[in-house]
């Protein structure tokens, strides 16, 4: 009887702890309005290329130390956070300087290099988030250091870069940042277009710039 009561009490304690932890956790879901851009270079002076997509799917689960309100005071240090986002490879389109569509042929080369048929998404897994600097005012972002893994063309590599977190109107959060990656780190040989007998070669480094718009997951009647 005593053992049964002890087991029951232990299970009840675990249930309460889990419930409290769930209450302190906020799930943020990706929203329309996100965007990602990849910029690269070529070996001809003043030549560069860019592709972009308006689609960033995924979610971010954060604990109580993550700022969700403008000007909210937060304690610097590691924040309980985990998440995943993805970009469909075929949603990426080459663009000119003014943002208008550029070359379908370049898109086909890109899809081939990214092995889109077997790896239709670029995926990022967040593994660690550390608040470095509080927002200076209600219109300024919180500055975090992030660590995670990115999967490109079926190859996974660790990445670390700063991100800005800015609560915006509509009860939404904008997570933005940029980082530089090398194609060869993902076993991708930089393209060399056949134009000019192959004399044009793209650089190994590319710059990734993104804005990821998120909002709290709506509470359903079943979860109340």
Tell me what you see in this structure:
The longest helix is centred in the N-terminal third of the chain and has 23 residues, at 2-24. With 224 residues, the protein is mainly beta. It has one domain (26-223): Lipid/polyisoprenoid-binding, YceI-like (Lipocalin, Beta Barrel). The chain has helices spanning 2-24, 104-113; strands spanning 26-30, 35-42, 48-53, 57-62, 77-79, 81-88, 93-94, 121-133, 142-152, 155-168, 172-182, 202-216.
Give a brief description.
By secondary structure, the protein is mainly beta. It has helices spanning 2-24, 104-113; strands spanning 26-30, 35-42, 48-53, 57-62, 77-79, 81-88, 93-94, 121-133, 142-152, 155-168, 172-182, 202-216. The chain has a single domain, classed as Lipocalin (Beta Barrel).
User: Count of helical segments?
Assistant: 2
Name the overall outline: elongated
In angstroms, what is the radius of gyration? 22 Å
Helix/strand order, N-terminal first: HEEEEEEEHEEEEE
Q: Which strands sit side by side, in order, in the main sheet?
A: 1-4-6-8-9-10-11-12
Query: From the helix content, strand content and strand pairing, which structural class follows?
Result: mainly beta
Sheet-strand content, in percent, reads: over 45%
How are the elements arranged and paired?
Blueprint: H1 2-24, E1 26-30, E2 35-42, E3 48-53, E4 57-62, E5 77-79, E6 81-88, E7 93-94, H2 104-113, E8 121-133, E9 142-152, E10 155-168, E11 172-182, E12 202-216
Antiparallel strand pairs: 1-4, 1-12, 2-3, 2-12, 3-7, 4-6, 5-8, 6-8, 8-9, 9-10, 10-11, 11-12
């Amino acid at each position: 009887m005593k053992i049964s009561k002890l087991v029951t009490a232990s299970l009840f304690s675990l249930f309460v702890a889990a419930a409290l932890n769930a209450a302190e956790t906020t799930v943020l879901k990706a929203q329309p309005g996100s965007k990602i851009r990849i910029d690269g270079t070529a070996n001809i002076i003043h030549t560069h290329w860019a592709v972009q997509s308006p689609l960033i799917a995924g979610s971010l689960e954060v604990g109580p130390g993550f700022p969700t309100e403008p000007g909210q005071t937060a304690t610097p240090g590691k924040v309980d956070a985990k998440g995943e986002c993805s970009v469909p490879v075929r949603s990426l389109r080459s663009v000119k300087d003014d943002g208008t569509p550029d070359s379908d042929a370049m898109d086909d080369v890109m899809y081939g290099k990214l092995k889109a048929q077997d790896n239709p998404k670029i995926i990022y897994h967040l593994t660690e988030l550390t608040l470095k600097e509080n927002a200076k005012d209600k219109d300024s972002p919180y500055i975090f250091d992030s660590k995670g893994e990115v999967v490109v063309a079926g190859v996974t590599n660790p990445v670390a870069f700063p991100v800005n977190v800015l609560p915006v109107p509509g009860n939404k959060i904008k997570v933005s940042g940029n980082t530089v990656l090398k194609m060869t780190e993902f076993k991708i040989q930089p393209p060399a277009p056949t134009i000019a007998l192959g004399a044009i070669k793209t650089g190994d480094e590319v710059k990734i710039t993104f804005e990821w718009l998120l909002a709290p997951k709506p509470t359903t009647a079943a979860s109340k």
